[in-house]
Amino acid sequence: MTAHGTLYGLVLAGGRSSRMGQDKSRMSWFGKPLYQHMASLLTQAGIDQVLISGSGFSINDSVIEDVVPGRGPVSGIHSALKRLHNGDRLLVIPVDMPLIPADAIRILGDQQRVCCFEGFNLPVVLPVTTELRQAVDTSIASDNPGDYALWRLYQRSGGQTIPLPLAMADLFVNANTPGDWCDLVNKEVVQK
Fold first, then answer.
1. Residue from 165, 80, 164, 157 nearest 114 by CA
2. Which of 64, 88, 104, 161 has a CB 3.0–4.6 Å from the CB of 5, allowing a cystine?
3. How far apart are CA 11 and CA 25, in angstroms?
4. What is the pLDDT along the chain (192 residues), one digit of tens a residue?
5. Strands of the chain, DSSP E
6. How far apart are CA 131 and CA 149, in angstroms?
């Protein structure tokens, strides 16, 4: 808990994983399911409370299922906001970026405004305000799939970007396909 409310972390683990051909969130990342690895990254970065967006996970009290499914990351954010209070902050991270350093998460966690790194929609920190709730509600209620895009949510909520430290740039990689996954595993092995 900070003077600005609780800093929550949200792992977006409810996607379809269609290009991967299997549920990415449950793939083993060096001995543990990927969603648990991402949750532990948030904890290492000093996040007060970690939530998982998805269903069927073993940490039930921390799992948030989509109230309005099919809206991508906005669905997970929308559902998480129902648990949070104005003054809290929500740091949202995708389940498929296992190389993100805890230092990058800390940098975003220190931000007091809607903020992400230049060139990346995720991770993002979202201060919980009435305005943010209205922007998310507008996105989630739309029939236009373009309104589910995170950049549109940033635009509606006055989002800012900050430079990504150059040393971290090649660690911000998603695993969307089996080939991406192999590349990330190999990169992690080389780093160790």
1. 157
2. 88
3. 10
4. 445 689 999 999 876 666 666 678 778 888 899 999 999 999 999 998 999 998 777 665 688 888 888 888 999 999 999 999 999 999 999 999 999 999 999 999 999 999 999 999 999 999 999 999 999 999 999 999 999 999 989 888 889 999 999 999 889 988 878 788 788 877 776 776
5. 7-12, 28-29, 32-33, 49-53, 63-64, 89-94, 115-117, 124-127, 160-162
6. 17
- Map tokens 């971290």 to a residue: 168
Q: Which amino acid is at 93?
A: I
- Enumerate the domain spans of the chain: 7-191
Phi-psi region of 22 (alpha: psi -120 to 50; beta: other; left: phi over 0): beta
Question: Domain 7-191 maps to which CATH number in 3.10.450.750, 3.90.550.10, 3.40.50.2300, 3.30.1360.120?
Answer: 3.90.550.10
Q: Do 188 and 143 contact (CB within 8 A), yes or no?
A: no
**Rounded Cα distance, 85 and 112, in Å:** 15
For residue 190 the two structure tokens come to 């080389």
CA dihedral 145, 143, 67, 91 (to 10 degrees): 40
